[in-house]
């Protein structure tokens, strides 16, 4: 129920498990009836506009807050009401003599909770509230046992905490119709609390089941758990809802039976998110938080990281990232790699290891989505349908906006992947229900697929807005070959062990003369365009050899944006420049190395394409302004822009 650390306030604490709530307290005098007594209450924080008000007062010739405070000190203390404990912003005297505006804690929910429900014993407690049993007094549910989440209004000390409660109820109302989602019945309030009435799950938490099994599950039992988690998370992500606090404590079993279905609960930290939106507030639980959350730029991929942590725990019984303090856990998440060498990983299948590794990839772009994870070989089941994936819509949007050269590169990549790797793409294509006459897709197929899976949550998250970016499909149709090229993610292909093989096969698709170089003419022939029709791709003339170098430079940078291979160094000599690309000489771009080179040299990287002859140093062409051999060197040195690589700085 509870969150392990508060919104935007990561703190250090033993075990990384608790919330540290700081509140400055002050001792105040109260009414004559309480004369002689002293009461501690939270002191409201000063207004952020205090200095602005003071400046305006000076300009208008009014008394400064300091002088007003001094004059007020000479008078006897006024009698003020004592707010509820924890309600620091609730109308007390603010610092500097200012009065803070009272927070509106009226939600507009039904105020007849006591008349409709009989509250029972407490069954769970979190930081912001607790859960109790309840029984319905009237209506269709009369006599039925329910679960009631009770959230104290006294602990809603900020506008953010109030908005969190409103959003939790809105998400529970909007999401409906999934078997692994806890049912929402009603929301009520009174002067003290907000009550969220939900389905009662009597089977206990997933965490309790893990502990009762000695800390770990068998692979087959873990598959059943992970499949249910992925099913409900894929549903939430398609609707535009990111949970942001996935952990074993937030999954409950309906009954105590071993084969009981599991329900996801606690949407207190969840939020609506548009397909291309990035969130920046740090929320979640320390052991399960994704690296990009700590970097304050994340989306639905953060939930997939949390599922990877849960799967790791299910399979081996230990956490992949651990430290004694919360800050230590965060450092481990950012810098450490999970251990797959110690027991019991030696007895776990390679497919299960690959599944966890592809979820715990620190580059969120290389991480699988929930729908892709369900089609992974470890979980694949022909009898279970693969759900519609919002990633398909985002990739097609990017494809429609890409250059012809990049589309050709994606087409080459799509031809290099195996039939087994096409299972996910074929499933998504069939979910869009292509035309029965020609088997092609148009804009209407995408619109109907979303509407058939739509709930009120999809409207709240504005997920349907992505259809506006697919308008080009209103004037043409897309066959499976083009759909396959549009919906592959080169970043995810890079995470595969056979990435180099895929890249080599894609490279050979462009090479037509049999002598390994790729010329601009060959690229034009592949894409049925003329190089002269692409003026934006032109470079200064550098001769025949320079033209071949230039074409490969654009193949590596413009067409594939580092998705294939980057030529780091084939040989160091440049006396007899000749393009000779041998698969053994190709290296994948190492973003860490690229970042290190950038920090060390602070100069553009240079890639020399040459023959095997004695190496000799050479300067950058820009340093040869007064030298006669400038043109010769320009034809032999190909600068590679750092923009072809992507890396993220990790704060110390």
Task: Please tell me about this protein's structure.
This protein is α+β, with helices and mostly antiparallel strands. It folds into five domains: 25-97, no CATH class; 113-198, Phosphorylase Kinase, domain 1; 206-374, Transferase(Phosphotransferase), domain 1 (Orthogonal Bundle); 390-491, Recoverin, domain 1; 499-644, no CATH class. The chain has helices at 50-59, 65-73, 113-116, 159-174, 206-212, 219-238, 291-294, 301-316, 326-335, 350-359, 370-374, 390-400, 404-416, 423-431, 443-452, 456-461, 480-486, 490-494, 499-510, 520-527, 543-559, 591-601, 630-634, and strands spanning 25-28, 39-42, 117-125, 129-136, 145-152, 184-189, 193-198, 241-242, 251-253, 262-264, 271-272, 605-608, 637-640. The strands form five sheets. A five-stranded antiparallel sheet has the order 3-4-5-7-6. Strands 1-2 form a two-stranded antiparallel ribbon. Strands 8-11 form a two-stranded antiparallel sheet. β6 (184-189) and β7 form a beta hairpin. α8 (301-316) runs antiparallel to α10 (350-359) and α13 (404-416) crosses α17. Residues 1-48, 72-100 and 531-652 have low confidence and may be disordered.
What's the domain count? 5
How many alpha or pi helices? 23
Main sheet attributes: strand count, strand direction, barrel closure:
5 strands, antiparallel
CATH topology label of the largest domain: Transferase(Phosphotransferase), domain 1
Q: State the low-pLDDT regions, or none.
A: 1-48, 72-100, 531-652
Going across the biggest sheet, name each strand in turn: 3-4-5-7-6
* Distance N to C terminus: 32 Å
Mean pLDDT: 74
Shape: globular
Question: How much of the residues is beta strand, in percent?
Answer: 5-15%
Structural class: alpha+beta
GO molecular function, one term: protein serine/threonine kinase activity
Biased composition (Low complexity): 64-77
Organism: Oryza meridionalis
Binding site for ATP: 149
């Amino acid at each position: 129920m509870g969150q392990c650390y508060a919104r935007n306030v990561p703190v250090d604490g033993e075990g990384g498990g608790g919330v540290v709530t700081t509140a400055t307290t002050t001792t105040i005098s109260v009414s004559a009836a309480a004369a002689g007594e002293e009461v501690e209450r939270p002191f409201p924080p000063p207004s952020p506009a205090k200095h602005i008000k003071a400046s305006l007062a000076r300009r208008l010739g009014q008394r400064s807050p300091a002088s007003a405070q001094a004059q007020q000190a000479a008078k006897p203390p006024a009698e003020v009401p004592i707010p509820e404990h924890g309600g620091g912003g609730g109308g007390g005297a603010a610092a500097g003599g200012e009065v803070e505006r009272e927070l509106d804690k009226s939600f507009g929910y039904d105020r007849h909770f006591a008349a409709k429900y009989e509250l029972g014993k407490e069954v769970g407690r979190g930081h912001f509230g607790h859960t109790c049993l309840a029984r319905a007094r009237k209506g269709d549910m009369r006599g039925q046992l329910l679960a009631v989440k009770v959230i104290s209004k006294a602990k809603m000390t900020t506008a953010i905490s109030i908005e969190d409660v409103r959003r939790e109820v809105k998400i529970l109302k909007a999401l409906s119709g999934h078997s692994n989602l806890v049912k929402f019945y009603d929301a009520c309030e009174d002067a003290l609390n907000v009550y969220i009435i939900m389905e009662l799950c009597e089977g206990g938490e997933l965490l309790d089941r893990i502990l009762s099994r000695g800390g770990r599950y068998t692979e087959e039992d873990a598959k059943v758990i992970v499949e249910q988690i992925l099913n409900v998370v894929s549903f939430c992500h398609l609707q535009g809802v990111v949970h942001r606090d996935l952990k074993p404590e937030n999954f409950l079993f309906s009954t105590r039976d071993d084969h009981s279905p599991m329900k996801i609960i606690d949407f207190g930290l969840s939020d609506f998110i548009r397909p291309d939106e990035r969130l920046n507030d740090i929320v979640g639980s320390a052991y399960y938080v994704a690296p990009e959350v700590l970097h304050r730029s994340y989306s639905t991929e953060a939930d997939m990281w949390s599922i990877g942590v849960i799967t790791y725990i299910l399979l081996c019984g230990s956490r992949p990232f651990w430290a004694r303090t919360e800050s230590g856990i965060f450092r481990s998440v950012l810098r450490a790699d999970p251990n797959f060498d110690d027991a019991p990983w030696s007895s776990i299948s390679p497919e299960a290891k690959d599944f966890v590794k592809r979820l715990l990839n620190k580059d969120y772009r290389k991480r699988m989505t929930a729908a892709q994870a369900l089609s992974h070989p470890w979980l694949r089941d022909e009898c279970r349908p693969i759900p519609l994936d919002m990633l398909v819509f985002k990739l097609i949007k990017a494809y429609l906006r890409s250059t012809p050269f990049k589309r050709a590169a994606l087409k080459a990549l799509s031809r290099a992947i195996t039939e087994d790797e096409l299972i996910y793409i074929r499933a998504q294509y069939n979910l869009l229900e292509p035309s029965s006459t020609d088997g092609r897709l148009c804009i209407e197929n995408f619109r109907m697929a979303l509407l058939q899976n739509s709930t009120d949550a999809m409207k709240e998250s504005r997920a349907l807005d992505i259809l506006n970016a697919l308008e080009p499909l209103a004037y043409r149709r897309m066959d499976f070959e083009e759909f396959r090229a549009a919906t592959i993610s080169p970043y995810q292909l890079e995470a595969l062990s056979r990435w180099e093989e895929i890249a080599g096969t894609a490279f050979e698709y462009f090479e037509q003369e049999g002598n390994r170089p790729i010329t601009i003419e060959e690229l034009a022939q592949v894409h049925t365009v003329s190089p002269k029709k692409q003026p934006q791709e032109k470079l200064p003339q550098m001769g025949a050899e320079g033209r071949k170098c230039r074409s490969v430079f654009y193949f590596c940078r413009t067409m594939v944006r580092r998705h294939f291979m980057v030529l780091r160094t084939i040989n160091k000599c440049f006396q007899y420049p000749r393009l000779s690309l041998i698969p053994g000489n190709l290296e994948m771009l190492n973003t860490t190395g690229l970042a290190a080179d950038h920090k060390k040299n602070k100069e553009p990287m240079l890639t020399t394409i040459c023959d095997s002859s004695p190496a000799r140093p050479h300067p950058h062409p820009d340093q040869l302004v007064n030298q006669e051999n400038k043109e010769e060197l320009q034809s032999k040195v190909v600068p590679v822009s750092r923009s072809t690589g992507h890396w993220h700085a990790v704060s110390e």
